[in-house]
Amino acid sequence: MMTSVDTDLIRVLADPLRLRIVTLLAQETLCTTHLVEETGAKQTNLSNHLKVLREAGVVETEPCGRFIYYRLRPEVIAQLAGQFADLAQTARATAEANLKRSCP
Hints:
3 strands
């Protein structure tokens, strides 16, 4: 059983600020103003990171008056978690079967 992990999504989530944003959005839907307050990041920097998260499909937006709220798409995180779970299962099976390639 071979599995692959979405490396593009891992790269997106590897940035500490983006991971912090995702962690905050897992707890509640927030607008940019809230995220600036919570992270201490500059608004332009935060907007750039939110754009990356949006383009990767990790977050979605909801306009509300003159504000835009951001919501985490849990199914994307669950899919990545499932890929890692599959990888762990493969590693367990490999260890239990003591599979190793012979050296030449």
